[in-house]
Write a structure and sequence with these properties.
The protein has about 230 residues and is of the alpha/beta class. The protein has one domain: Alanine racemase (TIM Barrel), CATH 3.20.20.10. It contains 9 helices and 8 strands. Helix 4 (about 85-90) links the parallel strand 3 and strand 4 (about 95-100). It is globular and about 45 Å long. The protein binds pyridoxal-5'-phosphate.
Length: about 230
């Protein structure tokens, strides 16, 4: 199956998940996670109408952004961020989903060029409080949001979550539901909050049922990843 076919299938699945959940059509957007896949594959999906792409590895992403500069795409950084990467992210991306530390977000705001609109930010939440995982704890989230909302060159848009891997569907459901509650309470405090980045290839239907409005999908669109990173 080619990439365009897979895109149609994923979009069909999203529309039917919306319907099943009683949500309005087109309530849920698709972020195509193109990590490890070359620029020409991204271009194929862009030609089929896909606009938003997610990348985890900075150098790989910068190469693709450069090659596809004319395609008018929206680039989301969704991988781990160290301080030495903030400059390039602030200059070349439209969104960041994987931030949980004020220091990093302050740097992104400082380094965002004046000519560009504010960088859109989803705070990553460590919803299962897993010690090895990134993300702000639910307890620390309100204070972090209070600080981020004041920064001039970032726009706080919502939350991102990567839940604990479990085969237990009801546990997945509860975890997504708890994230949705955090999202709603943030939304009641700040007008700019409109994005809940939740769900991947394997669990997007459940995530949509529990309130996600942006699913990050790699494997179901591009196939299995064979390498961790392109050379
Ligand atoms: C790789 C990745 C995805 C996509 O996962 P698939 O299972 O391939 O759909 C989504 N979100 C993040 C943060 C990722 O790193």
């Amino acid at each position: 199956m080619d990439a365009k076919k897979r895109l149609q299938n994923v979009l069909t699945n999203i529309r039917s998940a919306e319907k099943q959940a009683g949500r309005p059509e087109n309530d849920v957007a698709l972020l195509a996670v193109s990590k490890t896949w070359p620029a020409d594959v991204v271009k194929t999906l862009a030609e089929a109408g896909q606009r938003d792409f997610g990348e985890n590895y900075l150098q790989e992403a910068l190469t693709k952004i450069d090659l596809l500069g004319n395609e008018n795409l929206i680039w989301h950084f969704i991988g781990p961020i160290q301080s030495n990467k903030t400059q390039d992210i602030a200059h070349h991306f439209d969104w960041v989903h994987s931030v949980d530390r004020l220091k990093i977000i302050q740097r992104l705001s400082q380094q965002r060029p004046d000519a560009l609109p504010p960088l859109n930010v989803c705070l990553q939440v460590n919803i299962d409080q897993e010690p090895q995982k990134s993300g702000v704890t639910p307890e620390a989230l309100p204070a972090l949001a209070d600080a981020v909302i004041k920064l001039p060159k970032v726009a706080l848009r919502g939350l991102m979550v990567i839940p604990k891997v479990t085969p237990d569907e009801s546990e997945q459901r509860r975890t997504f539901a708890r994230t949705y509650q955090l999202y709603q309470s943030l939304q009641s405090r700040f007008k700019s909050i409109d994005t809940l980045s939740m769900g991947m290839s394997a669990d997007m239907t459940i995530a949509i049922a529990e309130g996600s409005n942006l699913v990050r999908v790699g494997t179901a669109l591009f196939g299995e990843r064979h390498t961790q990173q392109t050379p």
